From TrEMBL:
This is Uncharacterized protein. PROSITE patterns: PROKAR_LIPOPROTEIN (PS51257). The lineage of its organism: Bacteria, Bacillati, Bacillota, Clostridia, Thermoanaerobacterales. The keyword Transmembrane applies. The chain crosses the membrane at residues 7-25, 87-110, 122-139, 151-173, 185-205, 226-250, 262-284, 296-317, 323-345. It comes from Thermacetogenium phaeum (strain ATCC BAA-254 / DSM 26808 / PB). Keywords: Membrane, Transmembrane, Transmembrane helix. It comes from the Bacteria. InterPro entries: Seleno_YedE, Sulf_transp_TsuA/YedE. Pfam families: Sulf_transp. The keyword Membrane applies.
Length: 350
């Protein structure tokens, strides 16, 4: 167990260093490698939303999935499976993304933002923790999305194959792919470096089961610090690089791709953290599970894409100017919906 924990700490630290270095190499400030933001950018590149400043096929996402696939196959952990309430998972993935885009970042980016001095991230992280605590209450009542059953081998490769297709689009840039000319979508590291970094992160995340919500869940639910140690090590890795490069800017105002509305930073991440807890993992973990052959995680990713499209098409997503017009209403609706799922799908509701 000590060896596994040391590996988690090393993996978290390496991930943090790589994430911070990606900002140095061209990715948006205090973003590095944000899973939710990058799925949002890919969604825009495919034309699912038309927010022109956030459209780019992020090779990091494709790399994470393919790196996790390689690791899973190499260590004989690729196991095609699915059928565990896919529609519910799809909707949870959608609301996960809506909450993340009200905050402007997933649980990974919340840690990155804090390590860059963005104090608004404190409210976001508090929201993740509070959402996880609510999710724990449902888990203790017997919440369960059901057991996945073994599936056909080919189905397990569907999400990785989609990622290969997206990577080909990123390389050859067909005319139907959108790409930002300004804004966060126009800020990116060189493609090959982004892909390599994604491959490394994916392999590390697959071998360690890294999860930026599961760490908080296990800490409070069973007092297990294994996953949480990865979050701490990740924060240290980002902080070290930021200090070396002079990228720490402590304060609330003027932070990159962030707003200062404390209430909705918190509430957005409550929705995100709760959804992730019921799903069994954050967007990073869902990507890795999909690479291992879990088609339920693949359906969750499809929900994440829809959540990005809905957020930008219906004025839910926040921006540096503030919270989106209908973002607060969407978060409240999402919390009611997700809590209903948690309550009525618990054994305690019977």
């Amino acid at each position: 167990m000590k060896t596994k924990k040391y590996l988690m700490i090393i993996a978290g630290f390496v991930f943090g260093v790589l994430a911070a270095c990606m900002t140095v190499l061209g990715n948006p400030g205090n973003m590095g490698v944000c899973i939710a933001c990058f799925y949002r950018d890919i969604s825009g590149a495919l034309g699912l939303h038309r927010a022109e400043i956030v459209q780019y096929l992020r090779p990091e996402i494709m790399g994470i999935c393919l790196g996790a696939l390689i690791a899973a196959v190499a260590f004989k952990e690729f196991k095609p499976r699915g059928g565990s309430n896919p529609l519910v998972r799809f909707l949870l993935g959608m609301f996960l993304m809506i909450g993340a885009l009200v905050f402007l970042g997933c649980p990974v980016r919340a840690v990155i933002r804090l390590a860059g001095g963005d104090l608004n991230a404190i409210f976001g992280l508090a929201g993740v923790v509070f959402g996880a605590v609510i999710g724990i209450w449902f888990l203790r009542r017997g919440f369960n999305l059901g057991r996945a059953t073994p599936g056909h081998t080919f189905t397990g490769y569907l999400i990785p194959l989609i990622m290969v297709l997206l990577l080909l689009f990123a390389v050859f840039r067909p005319e139907f792919i959108f790409q930002s000319k300004e804004g966060p979508g126009a800020s990116h590291a060189p493609l090959i470096i982004s892909l390599i970094v994604g491959l490394i992160i994916g392999a590390l995340a697959q071998r360690t089961r890294m999860c930026f919500v599961g760490g908080w869940r296990d800490l409070f639910l069973v007092k297990d610090t294994y996953l949480f140690s990865g979050i701490v090590a990740f924060f240290v890795g980002v902080l070290v690089v930021n200090i070396i490069t002079g990228a720490v800017n402590i304060g609330f105002e003027g932070q990159p791709v962030a707003h200062t509305n404390a209430l909705w930073n918190f509430m957005g991440m409550v929705l995100c953290g709760l959804s992730c807890t019921l799903l069994g993992g954050c967007p990073l973990r869902q990507t890795v599970l999909a690479a291992e052959g879990d088609t339920d995680a693949g359906v969750t990713i499809m929900g994440i894409f829809l959540g990005a499209a809905v957020s930008h098409n219906f004025l839910l997503a926040s921006s540096a100017k503030g919270v989106g017009l209908f973002g607060p209403a969407a978060v409240i609706i999402g919390l009611v919906f997700v809590c209903c799922i948690g309550y009525f799908m618990s054994e305690g509701a019977a």
